[in-house]
Amino acid sequence: MGKVDHKEILRTDIYFHKPMTPEEAVLQLEAIDKGFLVFINAETNRMSIIYHRRDGHYALIESRR
After folding, report:
1. What's the longest Cα–Cα distance across the chain?
2. Beta-strand runs (E) in 21-63
3. Is residue 49 part of a domain?
4. What pTM, to 2 d.p., does this model score?
5. Where is the Sigma 54 modulation/S30EA ribosomal protein C-terminal domain (predicted)?
6. Residue 7 and residue 22: Cα distance in Å, rounded?
7. How many domains does the chain have?
8. Is residue 30 a part of any domain in this protein?
9. Residues near 7 by Cβ (< 8 Å), separated by ≥ 6?
10. Strand partners for 52
């Protein structure tokens, strides 16, 4: 077996408890100048992640129930 590099996992606090739409999440993401934002989607009531893609667009990941 090859050697496994152990990387430190750093905790980050980029979560908004107030439900918001994906459009509002984009505005918050731009305001905090981070790569992603975890939030509750007000349209679906699901935990979601929005992130800035390399092509300049945004991507939305939603949890399943």
Report:
1. 47
2. 36-41, 46-52, 58-62
3. yes
4. 0.76
5. 6-60
6. 32
7. 1
8. yes
9. none
10. 58
> What residues make up the domain containing 58?
15-62
Which CATH number goes with the domain that contains 39?
A: 3.30.505.50
Q: What are the tens digits of pLDDT across the range 7-40?
A: 898 887 767 778 999 999 999 999 988 889 999 9
At 18, list the tokens: 């107030």
Closest CA to 59 of 43, 47, 48, 44: 48
User: Could you identify the residue written with the tokens 């934002």?
Assistant: 37
Q: Which run of H or E residues covers position 22?
A: helix 22-32
Q: Does residue 57 belong to any structural domain of this protein? A: yes
CA angle 41, 45, 47 (to 5 degrees): 60
Q: Give the integer Cα–Cα distance in Å for 5 and 3.
A: 6
CA distance 37 to 29: 6
